[in-house]
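Listing S7. Sequence submitted for prediction.
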Amino acid sequence: MPKLSQLCLAAGLALGLAAGAQAQEEAAVTDPYQWLEDVEGERALAWVREQNAHAEAELAATPEFRRLEADLLAIYDSDDRIPEVVKQGDHYYNFWRDRNHERGIWRRTTLDEYRKPQPEWEVLLDLDALNAAEGENWVWHGADCLRPDYERCLIALSRGGADADVTREFDLAARTWVEGGFFREEAKGGLSWIDRDTVYVYTDFGEGSLTSSGYPRIVKEWTRGTPIGQARVVYEGRPDDMYIAAMRDHTPGFERDFVSRTIAFYNDELYLRGEDGGLVRIDAPNSANKGAHREWLTLELREPWEAGGRTYPAGSLLAAKFDDYLAGGRDFEVLFEPTATTSLAGATFTRNHLVLNVLDDVKNRLSVLIAGPDGWTRGEFVGAPEFGTVSVRAVDSDESDAVWMTVTDYLTPSTLSLVELGRAPEPLKAMPAFFDASRHEIEQHFATSKDGTRVPYFLVRPKDLALDGRNPTLLYGYGGFEISLTPGYSGGVGKGWLEQGGVYAVANIRGGGEYGPRWHQAALKANRHKAYEDFAAVAQDLIDRRITSPAHLGIRGGSNGGLLTGNMLTQYPELFGAVVIQVPLLDMQRYHKLLAGASWMAEYGNPDVPGEWDYIRGFSPYHLFDPAREYPPTLLLTSTRDDRVHPGHARKMHARMSEAGKDVRYYENIEGGHGGAANNRQAAHMDALYYTFLWQHLK
């Protein structure tokens, strides 16, 4: 189900502005390591290369490392992975990277071919060949092809994997770039189709056109053959907004244009654009996720809402007729209402049905809703498993009631089935086993946090585990932005950790979405400490159960999860034997001044407001670090080309810890973007570094 208030934002967050030196003249320079924020400055990069060399010498110089790196690369490059496809017209499209296609190929096939073990693919664009021809290092960011004929596509390409990218028009029939076609210069933003000769463009138009987060503030309508400078303004947001975008819903018979004004995470306005260019705001709570499918408007509530004489609880999914709602009607069908243990994980429209995906104590349960003249009726989703992470997505919501269903867990390779609703699934693809899982089993446990909250976590352990407190254990977490961590198969975790006898745990702490909006909101801003207390409680539960002990317990997290592990390092160092911090936020006094940081103030707060800095400094690892305190061995990993979370966070933390003589090492990939790696080889190298580090310190 498209959530229109998030579609443009989600696309934009995957796009971005090229990383570079970011002057901070407005701040008093009291930080001796602030020079490391100069992303591509010669002095800073020389420092990076020196640290990389130290880390490589310590971790990557052994035959064991090289074997692990090769094993991981073989998994990441495997031709046996499931090629996920998107249906457009009569073809099924896929983007694929392997050992022969380092940067990847964009290709397509038919459903009959896709059913075969080895489909024949038609290659549309080869990024390695393109890079060689243009002397570039393009990384794929996606394609938007114009319905209904899908002959013209807007393709987004990023240099080195940064959020920033360019958009170029591609002719599918001719397999070439369109000469004189639509082209957007490198920036955070995008293009989206209105019709063959018109697009919405939201990008960097020059001074004053970006928000304080570095995302587009203005969206325009641009006509083919005219300079982008002549594009007509559709909407201008405020400088302190987060992201402005627009899109057209091309559903036949229900074509509509929308403008999205994202003020902050989970705070947006959605406007319907009329044929005359006028905008009508969809009168719904800013915090609600707003969606449209054919005649329906859906609202997924993140806060309680009173409408039509009734109060609907946070976490509910409501549906109303779109046109009736705009006319003032407030008659809703309640499609989902949460309980103490359930939350909505997803809702997927097909042509005539709606598939609900509900988490019940972090386990997926599917059901099918059908709209009729007397309201919506509920039915069974045939063929869904009792255990495992289950996800569904429509094959073609305009034409069929079929869905793709993917099923996985920590020990079971993913399977992809084609499901005609009401019929048994047709298995099409299965990922091979990349590691020996026969000796492990999965459990779910609950820890008790400091305030008494029940916190679930998953445990993957050897069946013959000795409860002697000596088992090397890796605990992973995230705890932010309403993102849920559910069981999933990872060949890398399996080969690098489980197969060698390790125990793996995943904590479902507050700040995530495992129990819906309330779980996320419980750890916002001044309550951020609750996420860290939850994670510490899970760690302590692992210790109390004698599964492991501090000397054998390691942790890993990236991005907001890097902030999590940074706080574990500085606030709970006695619980851990090794800490991995990836692409992290760490300097919470300056995070909002670095790259996209200002867009996260709804999550963390504004450190420029004294009352908010009072609590933010309580979870700012860069400021909590105490040179006189003992800390466990630490590895920091980041990317130069990460233009979402500034690499200066990790750089400065390493410099501070290193100068204090702490046991810390650092590796920065020169490419990679926020994911850390721009290709499978880089991913295998970085993953082998942290697995090697963990085994060295936790055995």
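Caption to Listing S7: primary sequence and predicted structure tokens for the chain studied. Confidence is low (pLDDT under 50) at residues 1-29. The longest helix spans residues 680-698.
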